[in-house]
TrEMBL record:
One Pfam family, short name: Glucosamine_iso
Organism (species): Leucobacter chromiisoli
Ranges of residues in domain Glucosamine/galactosamine-6-phosphate isomerase: 48-254
Family, as annotated: Belongs to the glucosamine/galactosamine-6-phosphate isomerase family. NagB subfamily.
Catalytic activity reported: alpha-D-glucosamine 6-phosphate + H2O = beta-D-fructose 6-phosphate + NH4(+)
EC assignment: 3.5.99.6
Pathway involvement of the protein, from the record: Amino-sugar metabolism; N-acetylneuraminate degradation; D-fructose 6-phosphate from N-acetylneuraminate: step 5/5
Location of the active site: 96 (proton acceptor), 165 (for ring-opening step), 167 (proton acceptor), 172 (for ring-opening step)
Regulation: Allosterically activated by N-acetylglucosamine 6-phosphate (GlcNAc6P).
Source species taxonomy: Bacteria, Bacillati, Actinomycetota, Actinomycetes, Micrococcales
Protein name: Glucosamine-6-phosphate deaminase
Length: 293
């Protein structure tokens, strides 16, 4: 796991945006997944639907909700406006959705992703996918979501935030590291934390649909962003604690290409800060340029 400590939340956003921009650039114009893999056994019509009616040729991004990635999205949007990034052909898959909220509800993740990702980044809405929390058959909808990710060729880069209780997506403590997209019950702490987006705690749904930890771990790159002291404990447990389902984010320790980008406040409970900074100052040349913190 690569730990990058930067001065503040703005620098977290700049670093993450640079990584995502690099992913978008390197995927641009590559062959559609159906042409290169053909392994899903899906019909051409299915594949076409999964890629929004056209063959997918751009990066497949995993996108997160919450406050943490907002700076990243704002920086990406600035670069799109400046013509530095071309998002044509880019697809996106959200991590999670509340159960039972109409997609048009302003706090449904369908709405949040549209406001914070699809519109500002100029993505084709047909290429942006959010789990269906309003489906009559949730189990079938979860299986369908997994199928859509597979048929898009898998996720190139999954952006993540972290909950104060160590959740990623809505994988609450004790979620299986092998879990797939499924229905979950939100932890009381998560509902309290997210009540700020609703009129009252009672309005926060009790349940959700979330990509599983097993699903998330299949993304080619994981990039977790966090800032502020309130995240320091969760960050320390994720990075330096034992691999344990009680801290779902510790699953990042299993991933071969996971980067954690945090500000000083979120790093305040880490024990090996000197080492992480030493590594950042002495990156081997062949590791590529990446983004300067
Ligand atoms: N489901 C989302 C997560 O994907 C997010 O990472 C987390 C942290 O949110 P925030 O960034 O607002 O602290 O909680 C939410 O409930």
């Amino acid at each position: 796991m690569k730990i990058v400590i930067v001065p503040d939340a703005e620098a977290v956003g700049r670093y993450a945006a640079e990584r995502i921009a690099a992913t978008i650039r390197s995927a641009a114009g590559r062959p559609a997944p159906s042409a290169v893999s053909g392994a899903s056994g899906a019909s051409t019509a299915d594949r076409s639907a999964a890629s929004g009616g056209r063959e997918a040729t751009g990066a497949v991004l995993g996108v997160a909700t919450g406050s943490s990635p907002l700076g990243t999205y704002a920086e990406l949007a600035r670069r799109v406006r400046a013509g530095e990034i071309d998002t044509a052909g880019v697809s996106a898959f959200a991590l999670d959705e509340y159960l039972g909220l109409d997609p048009t509800h302003p706090e449904s993740y369908h709405s949040v992703i549209r406001r914070s990702v699809t519109e500002p980044l100029g993505l084709d809405p047909r290429r942006v996918h959010v789990p269906d929390g309003a489906a009559a058959d949730i189990r079938a909808a979860c299986l369908d979501y997994e199928r859509r990710i597979r048929e898009a060729g898998g996720i190139d880069l999954q952006l993540l935030g972290i909950g104060a209780n160590g959740h990623i997506g809505f994988n609450e403590p004790t979620s299986s590291f092998a879990s797939r997209t499924r229905l979950k019950t939100l932890a009381p702490r998560t509902r309290i934390d997210n009540a700020r987006f609703f009129g009252s705690l009672d309005e926060v749904p009790l349940h959700c649909v979330t990509q599983g930890l097993g699903t998330i771990l299949e993304a080619r790159q994981l990039l977790l962003v966090a800032h502020g002291e309130a995240k320091a404990d969760a960050v320390a447990r994720m990075v330096e604690g034992p691999l344990a389902a009680v801290c779902p984010a510790s699953a990042l320790q299993l991933h071969p290409d996971a980067t954690v980008v945090i500000d000083r406040a979120a790093s305040s409970l880490l024990r090996l800060t000197d080492y992480y900074e030493h590594v950042q100052r002495n990156l081997p040349e062949h590791a590529g340029t990446g983004a300067a913190p």
